[in-house]
Amino acid sequence: MRAAMKLFPRGRLRLAPRITLALMLGPVLAGLAGTLAPAFGLVPMPDAPPGLAAFRQLADWPGLRPAAVLSLTTGLASTALALAITLAVLALLQGTRAFALLLRLLSPLLAVPHAAVALGLAFLLAPSGWIARALSPWATGWHAPPDLLTLNDPAGLALVAGLVAKEVPFLLLMALAALPQTDAPRRRMVAATLGYGTAAGWAYTVLPALYRQMRLPVYAVLAYAMTVVDMAMILGPTRPPTLAVQITLWMTDPSLAQRGMAAAAALLQLALVVGALLAWRAAELLAKRLLICRAMAGRRGLALDGWLGPLAGLLAALAVAAVALGLAGLAVWSVAGLWQFPDALPETLTLNTWSRAAPDLQAATTLTLGLAALATATAIALVLACLEAEARHGLRPTTRALWLLYLPLIVPQIAFLPGLQFLALVTGAEGTALAVAAAHLVFVLPYVFLSLAPPWRAWDGRTATAAATLGASPFRIFWHLRLPMLLRPVLTAAAVGVAVSVGQYLPTLLIGGGRVVTLTTEAVALSSGGNRRIIGTYALLQMALPALAFAMAIALPALVFRNRRGMAVAA
Amino acid sequence: MTGLVLDNLLVTSGDTTWVALHTTVARGEVLTIMGPSGTGKSTLLAAIIGTLAPAFRMTGKVLLDGVDVTDRPTRARRIGLLFQDDVLFPHLSVGGNLAFALPASIRGRRARRDRIATALVQAGLAGFADRDPATLSGGQRARVALMRTLLAEPRALLLDEPFSRLDADLRAQIRSFVLTRARDEGLPVILVTHDAEDARAAAGRILSPLGKELPKKPQGVEGNATLAR
């Protein structure tokens, strides 16, 4: 009897992983189904009989080929470049002061939403941006902004730059999380004593073990880079835009006539991503063979170290500087009075922009915060329930579970959000803040889980055993020991959740039906208008909210545990 | 029947037998289990408190003062455990650590605070209630850990090499403090160690995890050597 109770403990905690998966994957699968139906004309709509009409209409669009090619080239190029920079930095700069500085900047860099990075970069690169101003007129002879396509260039170079700047910190974080499991210091030492160059030795001995654990984040980056909408709207080409941007334009067309074509294009986009992932996998296998070949040949690769280290450092510094300067540019524009070309700084500073935009800013900030709080609180509760169920019932995380967790990050938003919007329309949920928060949850959940699970699992289990021998119940152990002891990682995960929610553009736009206006949707919408002062205010606030969340995640535990040396951050 | 009874306790995994014990530890008695690391000492402790990993198979019973506790969860067994290191909760004060252990049946802020103050006096740590555990010395932490264990009012005490992280002088001092307090409370004690000095100081029976009687005075020989199988 008692044994049976031990085997099947009461409580609904066991259901937590299933509920979490359902909330996360349900929308993805339902959205994909909702995209399939209109693409094949299975939904009663004007001018859309069942069949392949939508696809024929899509094929007739002259921009299809260049848009699809752009999606592939910008996605693959930015991912390859970001990965190369990350790996080179890890191989060659670890232990240097530059690396320590980069580590310190990692969290702030990660917290900046994609749209803010893109807007900042646009202010740098634009013909009237800071770079042109810094060089004019003494070097360029320009007295007026030149008529050059430095932004929205047809090849998508500005977009690639923006993506690289945003994805290097993410890949670096993922790599640093995986690195301790690779026995890197000893392997490096063995390689060095055998006469290998630093980069080559690292690639032969550490990289294989490291990459195995970085694969899912890399896939997520590739899928994201191919299908990003907000960044591509701000930095990417316009005629035609990338496929994802074009789908969004069709989806938000008030006439509804292009929904079928949009759904068909979304399926094409999904196929492109799947194809690119397969190609990437093939490239991985090729790279592995090549690496083994070179290792077997005993190529010491000493010549690599001389130039690869400085180059990686330079590119990483460039990425950091681009983000930092871009954000500084946003800040200056938001308080700029008269600011003529080619002056590097405005003639006068004023708070006029802020005070004029204050009512709109306040409304958008409140809504953004509310959505972030709702999605993050739900995600934290669910993830804690999952992790606690795992701990109490001795469940082990499987590789399959990890794949499911990454699914919302790998299946492109643009492929399933149109379907989800369609379902939201049918059920009447479209345009409500609650539906938008639920859509945010799909993307907040995996990031919160990825952020919280490692420290939660690494907690010393003897604490729980010690408490149990003192007569403490699992409930008490959770609330009085594990949760307070893990306050810092929990708050950090919450800050990650806030950053993810605040940064969401496409879910807010599509599920909100244009009626849920957040800082992000407004900043992106304003970006085409060109009022840089207003854009600056929105982008700054959009960046400030996650930054505030991260600051609280650092300050609050430090305050609560100010008299507890054992709770200080390990140096 | 009082004391801690290990009734045909057998713990195996695959073909390996880790624990095979059939013995009674009377109230106030100290039974020493000796063996080098990796020979089932911590497996035995996990079996007694009920935290065996699923990979292990256990048969037999654990009885405490005549009551079968084998199927009870750890928290309901009333068996205290002192770890190799103190496992004080870093986010609670010294007093908070002790209060965590004090049964909820002792009600009233005042009564609880008095019990904790008394315990601290007994440990020679009067007035330490508000201290941060991280600021205590190794010996002070060890004493707090013991008082925490005793405040939960256990009916038996397990010691998992509880002195191995302390340096030699302190070790003898803390060891005698722990063993004296345990005897005063009349607790059956199982001491797990690989150190001959600990075993000698405990002055009781010495068994291997497989129930083999070991000589009481393995003097001049390291525990590891005497137990080579």
From TrEMBL, chain B:
For molecular function, the Gene Ontology terms on record are:
ATP binding; ATP hydrolysis activity
The scientific name of the source species is: Fertoeibacter niger
Q: Provide the protein name.
A: ATP-binding cassette domain-containing protein
Entry annotated with the keyword Metal-binding: no
Q: Which PANTHER family match?
A: SPERMIDINE/PUTRESCINE IMPORT ATP-BINDING PROTEIN POTA (PTHR42781), SPERMIDINE_PUTRESCINE IMPORT ATP-BINDING PROTEIN POTA (PTHR42781:SF4)
Q: Which InterPro entries match?
A: AAA+_ATPase, ABC_SmlMolc_Importer, ABC_transporter-like_ATP-bd, P-loop_NTPase
Q: Which residues form the ABC transporter domain?
A: 3-227
**Entries under Pfam families matching the protein:** ABC_tran (PF00005)
Q: Keywords on this record?
A: ATP-binding, Nucleotide-binding, Transport
